[in-house]
Design brief:
The structure is a single chain. By secondary structure, the protein is α/β, with parallel strands linked by helices. It contains 9 helices and 5 strands, in the order βαβαααβαβαααβα. The protein has a single domain, classed as P-loop containing nucleotide triphosphate hydrolases (Rossmann fold, 3-Layer(aba) Sandwich), CATH 3.40.50. Helix content is 57%, strand content 12%. It has a 5-stranded parallel sheet, sandwiched between helices. Helix 1 packs across helix 9, helix 2 packs across helix 3 and helix 6 crosses helix 7. The two termini are 19 Å apart. It binds adenosine monophosphate. The site of adenosine monophosphate has 18 residues, from helix 2 and helix 3. Adenosine monophosphate binds next to helix 2 and helix 3.
């Protein structure tokens, strides 16, 4: 099973992707996590990645696509995967679909977690202050300035994917502002009922 989760930053993709991965025993691939590891390296790509991520901008397509291809060719991706944060541009989606197609596969579900921007800005600010209170590391891009850039990147670069997947008839949308459990219940129902669930 191959699932793409779409939604603006803070909509809950990471939380839901972990639950899907555990319930269906498929790989959870978070490009944000993957790129944070790249950003921590002392290389030219590491520096480029770090700068883009800290400002809230997208990392160049070629750096992301190569890393995703490499990861999903590992044996633990054979049963399927849930993608959290990828694709984020139509060109990433096109290249990715080509690759799957060559291997005789395709995306089964593209699920959008829809959420209002003003609520998301609050969520990100809360996530950062809770992490600070608990003495945990705070993500460099969990500032309101970076979040505004991330939301703009989402509406300009990622939101067009909604039409892309809709035109392929695999897009379903969930209200991401419901409780975490309610979103999970709806997600599982969509996955289990196939592409004809509402
Ligand atoms: P996330 O953890 O998904 O919120 O991603 C954090 C940051 O990683 C984003 O703001 C981007 O800078 C970068 N990133 C994650 N996934 C992608 C992607 N598919 N394409 C480009 N940049 C990405």
């Amino acid at each position: 099973m191959r699932i793409v989760l779409l939604g603006p930053p803070g909509a809950g993709k990471g939380t839901q992707a972990k639950r899907i991965s555990a319930a269906y025993d498929i790989l959870h691939l978070s490009t944000g996590e993957m790129l944070r590891a790249v950003a921590a390296t002392d290389t030219v790509t590491g520096k480029r990645t770090r700068q883009a991520m800290a400002s809230g901008k997208l990392v160049p397509d070629q750096d992301v696509i190569a890393a995703v291809f490499q990861r999903i060719s590992q044996p633990d991706a054979l049963r399927g995967f849930v993608l959290d944060g990828f694709p984020r541009t139509v060109s990433q989606a096109v290249v990715f679909d080509d690759l799957l197609d060559r291997e005789g596969g395709e995306i089964d579900h593209a699920i959008e977690l829809r959420a209002d921007e003003s609520v998301l800005l609050d969520r990100i600010t809360t996530r950062a202050s809770e992490a600070r209170e608990q003495g945990c590391a705070v993500r460099e891009d969990d500032t309101s300035e970076a979040q505004k850039v991330r939301l703009r990147e989402y509406s300009e670069q990622t939101a067009p994917l909604i039409d892309y997947y809709r035109s392929r008839n695999i897009l379903r949308t969930i209200d991401g502002l419901q409780s975490i459990d309610a979103v999970t219940t709806e997600l599982f129902r969509m996955i289990e009922c196939g592409s004809w669930a509402s």
